[in-house]
């Protein structure tokens, strides 16, 4: 049994100086606010237990020297940690790690969303945009369309217990999309509507990776710009092997994990695994 779960930030090896590359206010070279990168690093240390409850954080001057940032940046990072109840700040003293909350964390949503909806997951959909649009370059390539060809695009926000966890863009090739133009999409996945109209999917290519949050996804999901997100890309093919649907979904890693069970297919010393 295997669980793939995204981490919000990596670790800095001990005794290795972490630097955010500029020491200036504003944004780093990667476009992520410098204070937010420092916040993510400190938050991960707290969540992983590297900094325990009641343990003092380095002083502002120590963090300024260690990470190559200004005191303003350090204070903004500490403000964000305080908002999330991860640290306690005291005037004239070092900030310290807050006591761990005893309340259990909310359960993560696990697995492909369309499979979960089929099994009865109570996930509400907000259809933010629907209509014919010229797709992104990635969608054009995935659907093998000519440049400037319009396809049917659906932009959706999924919520569980009124909290957003998934932001998706679905692009449907023109030859497949006609049934979508005249029906209310409601809560069902786009593929469900298409198969009700006679379309049959035969297979799909799918990849999972990490990405950073940019607008409008960041605003819709309620996360700061530059936050880590799980990204799922999927291309669905019809019975003739032609690509018909291209989907890009972004998930909040604090509310979603991708779970897979793998079956062993080979009994040799080099086992092979199949997703079941």
From TrEMBL:
Residues 32-100 form the HTH gntR-type domain. PROSITE patterns: HTH_GNTR. It comes from the Bacteria. One of its GO terms (biological process) is negative regulation of DNA-templated transcription. Residues 1-27 are annotated as: Disordered. PANTHER family: MANNOSYL-D-GLYCERATE TRANSPORT/METABOLISM SYSTEM REPRESSOR MNGR-RELATED, MANNOSYL-D-GLYCERATE TRANSPORT_METABOLISM SYSTEM REPRESSOR MNGR-RELATED. This is GntR family transcriptional regulator.
């Amino acid at each position: 049994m295997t669980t793939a779960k995204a981490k919000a930030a990596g670790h800095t090896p001990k005794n290795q100086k972490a630097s955010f590359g500029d020491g200036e206010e504003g944004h780093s070279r990667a476009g992520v606010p410098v204070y937010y990168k420092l916040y993510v690093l400190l938050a991960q240390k707290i969540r992983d237990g590297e900094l325990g409850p009641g343990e003092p954080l380095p002083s502002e001057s120590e963090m300024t020297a260690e990470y190559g940032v200004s005191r303003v940046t350090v204070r903004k990072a500490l403000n964000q940690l305080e908002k999330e109840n991860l640290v306690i700040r005291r005037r004239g003293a070092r900030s310290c790690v807050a006591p761990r909350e005893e309340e259990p964390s909310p359960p993560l949503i696990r697995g492909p969303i369309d499979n979960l909806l089929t099994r009865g997951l109570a996930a509400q959909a907000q259809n933010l945009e629907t209509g014919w649009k010229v797709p992104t370059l990635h969608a054009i390539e995935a659907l093998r369309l000519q440049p400037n060809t319009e396809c049917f695009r659906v932009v959706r926000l999924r919520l569980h217990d009124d909290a957003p966890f998934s932001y998706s863009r679905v692009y449907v090739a023109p030859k497949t999309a006609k049934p979508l133009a005249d029906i209310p999409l409601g809560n069902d996945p786009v593929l469900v509507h298409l198969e009700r109209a006679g379309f049959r999917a035969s297979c799909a290519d799918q990849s999972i990776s990490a990405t950073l949050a940019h607008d409008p996804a960041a605003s819709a999901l309620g996360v700061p710009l530059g936050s880590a997100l799980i990204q799922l890309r999927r291309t669905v093919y019809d019975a003739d092997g032609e690509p018909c649907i291209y989907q890009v979904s972004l998930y909040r890693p604090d509310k979603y994990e991708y779970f897979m069970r793998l079956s062993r297919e080979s009994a040799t010393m080099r086992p092979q695994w199949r997703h079941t």
